[in-house]
Amino acid sequence: MAMLEVNDLKTHFATQDGVVKAVDGVSYSLEPGETLGIVGESGSGKSVTALSVMQLNPKPPASYPEGEILFEGQNLLEVPEKRMQQIRGNDIAMIFQDPMTSLNPVFTVGNQIREAIRIHQDLSKTEANEKTVQVLTDVGIANPEQRAKEYPHQFSGGMRQRAMIAMALSCNPKVLIADEPTTALDVTIQAQILELMVDLQEKYGTAIVMITHDLGVVSQIADKVMVMYAGRAVERATTDDVFYDPLMPYSWSLLRSLPRLDTAGEVRLLPIKGTPPSLIFLPDGCNFHPRCPFAKDECRRVDPDLEEKKPGHEAACILSVEEIEGNKGRVDQELGVGS
Amino acid sequence: MSENGGAEATVDTGRNGRPAENLLETRNLKMHFPIKAGVLRRTVGHVKAVDGVDLQIRKGETLGLVGESGCGKSTLARLVLRLLEPTEGEVLFEGEDILQYDRKRMLNVRRNMQIIFQDPYASLNPRMSVGNIVAEPLKTHNVSEGSERKKRVQELLEVVGLSPEHYNRYPHEFSGGQRQRIGVARAIALNPRLIICDEPVSALDVSIQAQVVNLLQDLQKEFDLTYVFIAHDLSVVKHISDRVAVMYLGKIVEVADRKDLYGRPRHPYTASLLSAIPVPDPRKERERQRVVLTGDVPSPANPPSGCPFHTRCPRAQDYCVENVPPLEPQESGDHRAACFFPVKEGQKIEEPATSTPYRVE
What we know:
heterodimer, A: alpha/beta, eight-stranded mixed beta sheet, 12 helices, B: Rossmann fold, four-stranded antiparallel beta sheet, 32% helix, ABC_transporter-like_CS (chain B), ATP binding (chain B), ABC_transp_ATP-bind (chain B), Oligopeptide transport ATP-binding protein OppF (chain B)
């Protein structure tokens, strides 16, 4: 049994303009020690998927018309809030994108980490203090006793994110959900944080859900990848399969629209035309067809489900593997991409 | 290949056989912002945002400017446009020091230098129609009137890939990528020579980024523009630039032809910056040796002595703590780096170099 299993999750929001189908049928599973990368543009439903697992979407407007989130066999959509509070932070922890807004500016960093520890663990004040210093040391903050007494504004961006990771890991969670943890940071600091996450994962066997729009970060850290578009999972496979043999035209287009350090300047970028659709008025047929470079007439009518195209490699596209590969090859030749 | 040849060609094919002039040059440019404190608001120190920058921008090229946040990239851009008055130094536009110009002459020069800002949501006035936004530079500089001006604006909208019917719409009706196109239309309205692009694609989604990057490249070819392209994303900079300059704590630490800078970085900061970028290629990622720098960028209000990078540099020696390295030519004259112990071909960054500083003995 997988540690975390999300089955056909739907998270809808009621708004004045209509129902926003932020997440509309997403499934994935996660084993201990594994890293899943969730990739997609802003508004594709990545963060709402994560917040649904944490049960942090305000209800209303959020509702879960269908699906289940199984954590060690119990459905998080059905457990009472009391039980959820025990799970949240203790078994499943989350790191947010912006470390400045996710730390409370009027309490010291140590105070906030200690609070998390004392809620979930039966420790005395001095023991909790020791534990706080220890987790700060774990995440590589120099001079932790002193730093614990400081306020968030006295920390740099990278250190704040380290403090957030320290807080998230203070209860040794089984699952860590990281929502764009390095997006607000400079590359040199990003490298530090990613290295830290991998080290801690090896040490504690934590399963990680890494949400990001940066395909480079995913290729560095993830074992398997789920690509999201307009609230749906459109491709799901191992990291290598998604990067070297994408079978959903959207994933392929994303990779071709990205300047890469190794080929930059030699090939022209292939932008994806148009913009992502509104989640209230989704196009008929395949959600991606208005922007898809390979779309056929049929794509306007048929809404494809995620299906296994190759062993262990699922994609939501009505085109056959041969058609997709033929199309990819043709465009690559025009662009002059050698593969 | 072509970019090496291209860079050479720009040097050689200047008018009358002389080397091509620099469109823009900065000499020892400094911007020190005062830090005021106390009741009397006395100056207690300075933030050295830009601290002695010598930079040449050649006609028709794209110069990429990279560095971490707070390194002074955007301040430098604003100094070049004289949106900020520098503390010290010169800014030469076509050989003339524009810092000496009065208001009137400055206005004339500004026709030739424009800027595209990072945040397409903050850089467009929400109460002005797109037509008025794009027409504003034409108005300021008294170029064309009435229906002729409107025609020109509609032309510009078409050039950047919007429709002329968008003339009467407002910025909130557009997506991020479209707004950035409006910003581009405004920047090219006066046929400028130089456009400073300050993180023009950083706020955009990946699928939209490519649209704007391609647009900028097409416009450069069509209108013979010179770009200074500021970004923290080194892959985008590599894609668009002919030459690249790396900034650290208000100083240029390395500048070179794109191929040289990415292929053979000399400054340990450049080398570690390059190794920190994740590449969307899982197999390469697994094989890669990363140099993870320790610590954060020091505060520009209190920069370290000697080489500004010595606090994080894996190969720093005692010598670096006491002496400031000048931006010196490396093997090929076009490649300059400010380091006493530059990374040589095939060397690892961590490898401690010889104890004799480069070109100092």
